[in-house]
Amino acid sequence: MRFILPVGLIATAFAIAPVRFDREKVLRVKPQDEKQANVIKDLAKANQLDFWYPDATYHVAANMTVDFRVSEKESQLIQSALDQNKVHYEILMHDVQEEVKKQFDVKEDFPGRHSYAKYNNWDKIGEKDERRKAIFMDCGIHAREWISPAFCQWFVHQATKTYGKNKIMTKLLDRMNFYVLPVFNVDGYIWSWTQNRMWKKNRSKNQNSNCVGTDLNRNFNVSWNSFPYTKDPCEETYRGPAPESEKETKAVTDFIRSHLKSIKAYITFHSYSQMLLFPYVYTSELPPNYEDLAKIAKVGINVLSIPYETNYTSGPTASTIYPTSGSSVDWAYSLGIKHAFAFGLGDKGKFGFLLPESQIKSTCKETMLAVTFIAKHILKHSS
């Protein structure tokens, strides 16, 4: 049994006032046709819309569920435009700042002690902790997805806690290595705690631009130059100046390459959407081992849904949601890691990126069941 928890770079937050989201709204829209989809795209050109799903205006299409955050100042204008064009919408959140505050709804039994039922800032996460088969797990590529680092911490805690007591977990830990990266995007994660809860990218400076940050899940060297919407440094989906240009991406890719002979699976955790996805991400073409991946994903979501009645969706990423470039899943798969998966953890949009702490335990418990199943499958079937 061996756990390795790589630690990223630490960024220092400047003493500036944190961004607030008072009376900002999150709207959910489902355009019925291309005309209505274009209404949303036109509104995005003229207003500051923070797209939660999909992650860019580029992907908005007919019959797609679209979630976006809008400022208090622009919300009335946006709602009026939607009404005028007979585009149906619902308000998921009436005051984002209130939802930010309500995330912390679990009382600490022992203040200051590390709790796996609460969201922990970077200072509290830190480090806890032959030819075996190994699984690489990463969390927190996107800074505002706090439930992802929470799960990685939970996984390590539960795995070590139950070792020697739980037969299945003991067998897995005796015969496999788990490389767990609890926070992929460290400086972005810190920034989301200290300055801007909705921050997504890392905090790297961009040459010839005042806009900060790269989307680390567009920075991997696979189909990196496929989509024009990733070229703008001011966009949330900016791919970076070159593949693996970011220190975080380079550290992970170097680590995986150096352990490639033993790594049989790559799993990354995101939020929100309740999905278990697999390659390809950049094209709707099916991977050679599609049937195997589809079967694993389908059984995996059944394993977690039966006891908790949580409704997950599974499938290849591009056709299940939308295609994107430079993703970690496609990159891992292209290296020969034929079991590459991406979890979209809870929920389906009521809380979005602001899932309350009171739902951490149930989310982690059900996800643990699916990850354990995948690990058992890898152990049994990988050569």
TrEMBL record:
Annotated signal sequence range: 1-15
Pfam families according to UniProt: Peptidase_M14, Propep_M14
GO molecular function: carboxypeptidase activity
InterPro entries: CARBOXYPEPT_ZN_1 (IPR057246), CARBOXYPEPT_ZN_2 (IPR057247), M14A-like_propep (IPR036990), M14A_act_pep (IPR003146), Peptidase_M14 (IPR000834)
Residues in Peptidase M14 domain copies: 85-378
Protein keywords: Carboxypeptidase, Disulfide bond, Hydrolase, Metal-binding, Metalloprotease, Protease, Signal, Zinc
Cofactors demanded by this protein: Zn(2+)
SUPFAM superfamilies per UniProt: Protease propeptides/inhibitors, Zn-dependent exopeptidases
Assigned protein family: Belongs to the peptidase M14 family.
Name of protein: Mast cell carboxypeptidase A isoform X2
Natural source organism: Vicugna pacos
Gene designation: CPA3
